[in-house]
Amino acid sequence: MINGFINVLKPSGMSSHDVVSFIRRTYKIKKVGHAGTLDPSAAGVLPIAIGKATRLIEYMTDADKSYRAELTFGYSTDSGDTTGTIVKSSDFIAPEPNDINRVLDSFIGEIQQMPPMHSAIKINGVKLYDLARKGISIERPTRTVEIKKISLIENFSDHFLFDVDCSKGTYIRTLCFDIGVKMNIPSVMSFLIRTRVGGFDLNHAFTLEEIAKHPLDVLQNIDVVLEHMPAVFLSTNLAQAFKQGQKITVNNTDIQNSLVRIYENDDDFIGIGEFDANKVLITPIKVITR
């Protein structure tokens, strides 16, 4: 069975589900999942898990993300991007770079965002975009997200490019709309590419054509998403006990209380455990066997 992660460069025009379907056909395997949905109109990094790697997607849910976006002045839409219906337009005076930077800086830190109607969030069991397609708009609770870094890349008369590092759950089209509100100019996200999801970055992403041509070469190890966890290496006997769900006493005193990735001998990844530094004890949390 094939197991591992693929750093996919999703093209615009495809949904994240379309990419999953492509991977299923390419690898002839049903057990495929993705981490961090990308809108069909957006391109960029889409981590894909195959086989037993799908059991580790949950450890990517809190991963920070990075984007490069284009904000266009002069109009706004009901979707927040160029695929929607124009709801407001106006003439404007092109803002100076200093003014743009000042507004961008005001978003650094924790901010409140209202999810757009054209999103996959469910309220009362119904996805918002299903309501939006019917012309229905409802009240949405705001959510707290964090903008960790935001910077102006290039400025033009009617649009500009910016990079942003942010927490999970951040909507860049909402950010573009809110930037426009602060500048008193209706604005829309006119382009978006995701450049990073956790440890997966754009420079090392593979196109669908590359994946189809070299499907095994693009696979990364199943434990690639766990590199932030300390590693513990067990002897064969202790590893066997761990795989049977038994708690393991270890001699490692350098690790604090945390989740740890477990290996049999030097490099055979077998799962995730919870380390108790006081008892020097590892409790199996997730066992991954071949």
Could you characterize what this model shows?
The structure is a single chain. By secondary structure, the protein is of the alpha+beta class. Helix content is about 20%, strand content about 35%. Strands 1, 2, 3, 4, 7, 10, 11, 12 and 13 form a 9-stranded mixed β-sheet that branches. It has a 5-stranded mixed β-sheet with strand order 14-16-17-18-15. β5 and β6 (about 85-90) form a beta hairpin.
Structural class of the helices, strands and pairings?
Answer: alpha+beta
Radius of gyration: 22 Å
What is the 3D form?
elongated
- Biggest sheet, open or closed, and with what strands and sense? 9 strands, mixed
The total count of strands amounts to 18
How many separate helices? Answer: 6
CATH homology-level superfamily of the largest domain: Pseudouridine synthase
Mean pLDDT: 91
Q: List the secondary-structure elements in sequence, H or E.
A: EHEEEEEHEEEHEEHEEHEHEEEE
Instruction: Tell me roughly what share of residues is in helical segments.
Output: 10-25%
Number of domains: 3
By CATH reckoning, the class of the largest domain would read Alpha Beta
Question: How large is the share of residues in beta strands?
Answer: 35-45%
Q: Segments where pLDDT lies below 50 for 5+ residues?
A: none
Q: Determine the N-to-C terminus distance.
A: 8 Å
